[in-house]
């Protein structure tokens, strides 16, 4: 084992792949039926609307990243308010990424089980979850360059079938009748899940310390990713609403019904393959980027030293990768998709808000920049109010666990 800095091996293309795959994972496969049932065809319009709101958060967030490059992303941004604030923001972001990973691995297992006639027993789900986590951890320990090449292939394999089936639906089936707008209560219930579709666009910030061209390329990659997410999810949701395929109650893989309605068994198989590659890409991007946060915290002495160990041959933060694998396994075995998605979104809103506040703090800003930053912070607060008390309690418990690790590391210094 060795404690060395991570080499700069991430270019602009790698940053874009991490951002896109960090966001496009489970939501596009797991949510269309739920949103269509809640607000009908209007669900498709929630995605471009949410993208505009998200840009009000992402633009000042991107400016903060360009102004404060460094290893660990949020660890650097939070440090504008002091060392402990840097630790808490980095740990909060780490929690968000782990909760998102745990949420999406549930959906991956749902789709994998469709390839068999085996009844989805709880023990089998648990075994598949653990195997998926172990495989992705091993791939990322084996080298960053290899991991990014695999991510490029997974991106292509998941994007083409989704876009193709969405366009087929819109070209062969009449557009759905929108009717009167849904009641506000129904729309509010869908807002947090729609925002979850965009969560992850900032995935590449964690590797800013390994970027060859600094934070500017990462900032641009994030903004482009938001546009691509909105377009993709809008097409898929509108296509689903146009076809409105019958979905059995309790169905955990509703987008299979869209593929079946359009192309029969071949369409279902196409969606199944796209879902597996999409979710693998999302989880793989998460496992590539997120351990860099805990590695940065350990390198500063804010987490136990072993977490910051770098593999002597592969030059990857394998101590942090193993830590993340262990924590996400526990989270995945303790909760389902929606609960974990809400916890992830709540934690991410806190990271966005504090990062924007740090950008406002480190230098004098023009009145327009101040207004933009404050708007982003207020929007983060507004989205956070949609979370349940249980989600807040879970986040508080995970933050407390981080505080205990911080205190242990401080005693060891």
Q: How would you describe the overall organization of this protein?
A:
The chain is mostly helical and 413 residues long. It has one domain (12-412): Amino acid/polyamine transporter I (Up-down Bundle), CATH 1.20.1740. It contains 17 helices and no strands. It has helices spanning 12-23, 27-30, 32-39, 42-67, 74-78, 83-112, 122-141, 144-172, 184-198, 214-243, 255-263, 265-289, 291-299, 318-334, 337-362, 367-384, 389-412. Helix 4 (42-67) packs across helix 9. The model has no long low-confidence stretch (mean pLDDT 82).
CATH superfamily: Amino acid/polyamine transporter I
How far apart the termini lie comes to 19 Å
Number of helices: 17
CATH topology: Amino acid/polyamine transporter I
Can you tell me the number of structural domains? Answer: 1
Oligomer: single chain
Uncertain runs with pLDDT below 50, 5 residues or more?
A: none
Which CATH architecture would you pick? Up-down Bundle
Key traits:
single chain; 413 residues; mainly alpha; Amino acid/polyamine transporter I; 17 helices
Task: Describe the protein's topology.
Blueprint: H1 12-23, H2 27-30, H3 32-39, H4 42-67, H5 74-78, H6 83-112, H7 122-141, H8 144-172, H9 184-198, H10 214-243, H11 255-263, H12 265-289, H13 291-299, H14 318-334, H15 337-362, H16 367-384, H17 389-412
């Amino acid at each position: 084992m060795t404690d060395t800095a991570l080499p700069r091996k991430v270019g602009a293309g790698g940053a874009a792949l991490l951002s896109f795959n960090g966001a496009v994972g489970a939501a596009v496969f797991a949510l269309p039926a739920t949103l269509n049932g809640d607000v009908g065809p209007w669900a498709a319009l929630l995605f471009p609307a949410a993208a505009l709101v998200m840009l009000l958060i992402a633009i000042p967030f991107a400016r903060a990243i360009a102004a404060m490059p460094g290893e660990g992303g949020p660890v650097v941004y939070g440090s504008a308010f002091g060392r402990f604030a840097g630790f808490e923001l980095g740990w909060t972001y780490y929690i968000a990424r782990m909760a998102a990973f745990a949420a999406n691995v549930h959906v991956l297992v749902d789709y994998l089980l469709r390839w068999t006639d085996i009844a989805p027993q709880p023990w089998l789900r648990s075994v598949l979850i653990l195997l998926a986590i172990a495989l992705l951890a091993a791939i990322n320990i084996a080298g960053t360059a290899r991991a990014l090449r695999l991510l490029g292939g997974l991106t292509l394999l998941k994007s083409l079938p989704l876009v193709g089936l969405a366009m087929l639906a819109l070209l062969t089936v009449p557009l759905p009748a929108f009717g009167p707008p849904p009641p506000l209560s129904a729309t509010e219930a869908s807002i947090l899940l729609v925002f979850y579709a965009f969560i992850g666009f900032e995935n590449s910030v964690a590797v800013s310390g390994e970027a060859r061209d600094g934070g500017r390329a990462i900032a641009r990659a994030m903004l482009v990713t938001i546009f691509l997410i909105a377009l993709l999810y809008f097409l898929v949701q509108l296509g689903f609403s146009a076809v409105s395929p019958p979905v059995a109650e309790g169905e955990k893989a509703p987008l299979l019904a869209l593929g079946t309605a359009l192309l029969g068994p071949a369409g279902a198989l196409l969606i199944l393959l796209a879902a597996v590659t999409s979710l693998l890409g999302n989880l793989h991007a998460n496992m590539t980027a997120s351990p860099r946060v805990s590695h940065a915290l350990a390198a500063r002495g804010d987490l136990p030293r072993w977490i910051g160990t770098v593999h002597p041959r592969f030059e990857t933060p394998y101590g942090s990768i193993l830590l993340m694998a262990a924590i996400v396994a526990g989270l995945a075995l303790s909760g389902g998709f929606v609960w974990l998605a809400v916890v992830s979104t709540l934690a991410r809103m806190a990271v966005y808000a504090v990062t924007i506040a740090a950008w406002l703090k480190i230098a004098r800003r023009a009145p327009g920049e101040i207004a933009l930053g404050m708007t982003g912070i207020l929007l983060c607060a507004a989205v956070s109010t949609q979370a349940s008390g249980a989600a807040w309690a879970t986040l508080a418990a995970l933050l407390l666990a981080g505080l205990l690790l911080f205190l242990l590391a401080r005693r060891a210094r």
